[in-house]
Prior knowledge:
By secondary structure, the protein is of the alpha+beta class. It has one domain (3-82). 47% of the residues lie in helices and 23% in strands. The protein has two helices and four strands; from the N terminus they run ααββββ. A hairpin with a 4-residue loop joins β3 and β4 (80-82).
Amino acid sequence: MEDQQKLSSIKQLIQSAEASLHSAKQMIDELTGDAPIVAESSTSLHESARELGSMVNDGSNRIINGLFEGQHMIGLDGKQYSVPANYA
């Protein structure tokens, strides 16, 4: 893998980790009652997914990072992807 590809992959991994941490913090706040529960509109979820999501083609594999909304992942392309229950 070239250095530029490695840097791009690292940036995407960091963005995905930040999105996961944000989601985890929101879930903790909801469970503890520390913050009001605010339902995001579908439009803002898609916008957030475009900002945070990424796609990487690594040979024959396609890796999609996006925003998990509780049942599906919304990818960079705005599409909803199924997430198996054991990963959700």
